[in-house]
Amino acid sequence: xxxxxxxxxxxxxxxxxxxxxxxxxxxxxxxxxxxxxxxxxxxxxxxxxxxxxxxxxxxxxxxxxxxxxxxxxxxxxxxxxxxxxxxxxxxxxxxxxxxxxxxxxxxxxxxxxxxxxxxxxxxxxxxxxxxxxxxxxxxxxxxxxxxx
Length: 148
Prior knowledge:
This protein has a 5-stranded parallel β-sheet with strand order 2-1-3-4-5, with helices on both faces. The chain has one domain (4-139): Rossmann fold (3-Layer(aba) Sandwich), CATH 3.40.50. The model is unreliable at 144-148 (pLDDT under 50). Helix 2 (51-67) packs parallel to helix 3. The protein has helices spanning 14-20, 51-67, 88-98, 111-114, 126-139, and strands at residues 4-7, 25-26, 42-48, 72-79, 104-107. The protein has 5 helices and 5 strands, in the order βαββαβαβαα.
């Protein structure tokens, strides 16, 4: 799966995503650059569901709009910053911020990862499998995704 995870803030989870999804790459909080003659890198933004993460996604979306980096944005992965449901104020902001990307995926809190278990497909939540299936379908051209 040829996709770059762009963490929009420190601790966003892009390294975890790279570990769970074989063949993907963490971009290190910056836009990847294609080699000469190569297509635009396909990226998925990653952020935690904290207020800091929500604001960072807004900043990243403004940067995309203003600077127009040569990337193809497939969507955004929200990674839970704590167990349980988001407070209403964060849910409302998340809904607004999510409207600026073609696709949104949400990964729940994984206590085992917090306790030091190495993230993998084997211990990933069900939602990670759905994310993988969607990205594979996109890569095969089986699903249309509007890109920025």
